[in-house]
Predict the 3D structure of the following.
Amino acid sequence: MTQTSFPHLMARLTRPLAAAGLALILAGCGFAPLYGQPGVVAGLSSIHVTAPQGRAGELIREHLDDVLAHSADAKPAYQMTLQLYEQRYPRGVRVDNVATRYEYVLTAVYTLTPSEGTAKPKVGRVRVEVTYDSADQPYASVAAQQDAQDRATEEAARKIQLELAVWMAKGSPMDAAKPAKAPKPAS
């Protein structure tokens, strides 16, 4: 039988106790995960995205459908329209004035409106910047640019998802536009 040193034994015993204590502290302070809020997951999955035509529009629509867990079977409660603005800046210019690196900037402006009702739409804007190397071979350069576009649209979709989840968890103004239940008469 091997003997364990007292400090090692104490460390093995106190770790689970410290983790349990931390869990109790977080539960006591009102910590709740974002997706634990009622209606957030259902609200995100009921968003129908309309993106502009083109490669970037198709990519961001696909990424948004993934991160929002869009359900094609359900009737959409919200309609999102997107406008995309793309820019490409040369960085890392060689002595012969040829760029070896580029910065790709994608700005997505979205408007979220309820499918029914007259609530004020939610408008938001996200900006993503990614860089990529420009190779001397044309095909490799195009592939690098398309990869940067894919990475930027994926990151923009994640940022939009997070903004909308926070907005829905706080109680969207669209929820306030729904008629409230009449208060019960005092007895």
